[in-house]
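tokens incoming
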């Protein structure tokens, strides 16, 4: 009896994993047409490294977590990267997509972007509001050579 129960539990878990895989694959395909171009557009606009350009793209909850001094420090740090040129590599996060089933929909990408100053590691989380994508969170860091 216990082995039969274990088999049923394993079958259910495997079914859930397969369903999550197909769900996140569908999400990846869907957002590749809208969110990926939005990432490039957002990076183009904020890479002037002016505070107002960034604030225009931040989600309200992101704006609430950062003060003016922190924004100035962030802009000074990122200014050394120069202007955004292109996305070299971008990867959709299936994990964030799966967790969005039980919370607000978030779309996360990581990858490598090309800036005037060279390659930069990128991690950006977007939320969709009113047909637009807003930045919920993002980080940039100089990509390691090699």
């Amino acid at each position: 009896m216990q082995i039969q129960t274990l088999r049923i539990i394993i079958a259910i878990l495997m079914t859930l994993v397969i369903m999550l895989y197909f769900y996140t694959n569908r999400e990846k395909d869907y957002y590749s047409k809208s969110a990926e171009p939005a990432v490039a557009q957002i990076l183009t606009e904020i890479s002037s490294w002016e505070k107002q350009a960034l604030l225009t793209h931040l989600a309200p909850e992101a704006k609430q977590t950062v003060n003016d001094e922190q924004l100035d420090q962030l802009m000074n740090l990122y200014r050394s990267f120069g202007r955004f040129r292109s996305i070299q590599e971008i990867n959709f996060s299936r994990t964030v997509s799966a967790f969005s089933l039980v919370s607000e929909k978030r779309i996360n990408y990581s990858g490598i972007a090309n800036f005037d100053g060279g390659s930069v590691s990128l991690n950006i989380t977007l939320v969709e509001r009113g047909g637009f994508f807003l930045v919920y969170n993002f980080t940039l860091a100089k990509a390691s050579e090699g």
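note: The first strand starts at residue 84 and ends at 92.
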